[in-house]
Amino acid sequence: MPDLPLQLEVGAVPTVPTGPSAPSETMAAALRDYANERYVEAAVKLQHVVEGRSDDRPDRVTQAEFFLAKCLYHIGLYHASAAAFDEVTRRGAEHPYFEASLTWLAMLAERLPEPSGVIDSVGRYEPAQLRALDRGESRRHYQHLVYLLGRARYGAGRFGEAVQLLSEVPEDSPHALEARFFEGIAHVRMRRAQPALGAFRRVIEAVEAGRTGGNDEPERMRDLAWMSVARLYYSLAMQLPARRNAEASELLGHAIAAWRNIPLSSEHWLDSFFEETWALYVAGQPARALGHVHALESPYFRARAEPEALVVRAMIQFEHCQWDAVEHGLSQFHARFDPRLDAAERALRMAARNEDAFRMLVAVRARNSRVSGPARPAIRAAFDDRALLRHLEDVRALDRERRRLERIGEGVLETSLYTRVAADHAVLRSLAVGRTGELARARIARLVEALRERMTQMDTIELELSTQRRMELERPNPAPMEPPTGGRIVAVQGDQVWPWDGEWWRDELPFYLQEIDNRCGR
């Protein structure tokens, strides 16, 4: 009689090491269907195995979970596939197909409009588990996964780990520019200015040199990097004490130069131009700041009228003792923005729930919203946000997948697979609508808060103006009232100077200057 493979103690349960258990007839048929690319048929059978409707052992059940997730991907039900892979990755290394799921997570991230769920799944891995893919055909997925893991660590507030991972994404990767950008943002979160500037400048230099790695929007990434450089220099200048004015002026100069690198054709130009306006005011360049306000008042930006621009102008005029001009500006501000604030507050009340905010977003995008006229352009602009629109597209993708499921389901309606995927989609859509609505409501709330802050600033100026008016009246010889005509406006490009003739020209917008007469002490 041959020896037993194990020496057993008395009373022990005998365990004989074996390889994978033999599949049930259902599992074997599912694997054959998968090999022959009959993914719907395979998925139906795999769901039976997962439910325990076959006599398969646990190792085959976990295999069925993995193959079912793959089938859903091949069928084009990407959200359902991501949900199935999420179940696998939640069990970590305990699941035998945990590491095998990595490549599929990378492919899903490329398919989904909003891959935050996939980023959460990738976040359950350690860097060493990714490195097995750093070879041959799988290297592309490895580079993407390193980027996603860096994003996951960033989202978890583990900024040091995020920087390490993001810095490993090679320059020839399609995700390199985003990796450098998030590396810079992570340094900012750790209050490390010099490394942050270095990361942002590497984005700029790579785009200028044409080393984009196949990124779809290199110019956009360059503009975002320039804005980040400008904002960082501005923040550093604002943190310096008054006794270091020379250093602060130098930093403000760097910030202004960075903003000016963003071209007029950029989607970020208007935001950067306004931010530069405020920096010019802080830097003591009132003529250039007023020239920027003049440009912001042009018809090109009527839908995006910035109340802050009028605040900047009022502050400059107040500092130059132009009381009549300030008073005129206050009247103009309230006439334009009081109705906008009232309408925006009504819109916020209409968007009390996330579902309400989502419906408002859809209606505003379709231009059939009930949002009141004074606030409509501002809310439309607030909703023109890439992150928000990405979430909206995710809901639409779920709707497309639901219709695809219904077409497939005509032949498999009796299966529990259809019930499972339909239930998953209903939950995923509800969550996606909630997230999108929450973001939309936050955009409206931000608009309302910004308008209220500007109102408070103008109320403060109005109070100070009343004080100055009273002091003027108490003088023995009060100054006469002067009409608020404003100073001469010119466009200055190099040695060329063109007086403004009442008509705005788009290519002149960055170059306007408005003279201002200082009437203090007269």
Could you describe the 3D structure shown?
- This protein has 522 residues and is mainly alpha-helical.
- Among the domains are: 182-267, no CATH class; 323-478, no CATH class.
- 65% of the residues lie in helices and 2% in strands.
- It contains 21 helices and 3 strands.
- The protein has helices at residues 25-35, 39-50, 58-75, 78-90, 102-111, 116-122, 127-130, 139-155, 159-167, 176-189, 193-208, 218-239, 245-259, 269-282, 286-296, 307-319, 323-350, 354-365, 376-383, 386-412, 416-474; strands spanning 489-493, 496-499, 512-514.
- A 3-stranded antiparallel beta sheet has the order 2-1-3.
- Strand 1 (489-493) and strand 2 (496-499) form a beta hairpin.
- Helix 1 packs antiparallel against helix 2, helix 5 crosses helix 8 and helix 16 (307-319) packs parallel to helix 21.
- The termini are far apart.
- 40% of the residues are buried.
- The model is unreliable at 1-18 (pLDDT under 50).
A few lines on this structure:
With 522 residues, this protein is mostly helical. It contains 21 helices and three strands. Helix 5 packs across helix 8 (139-155).
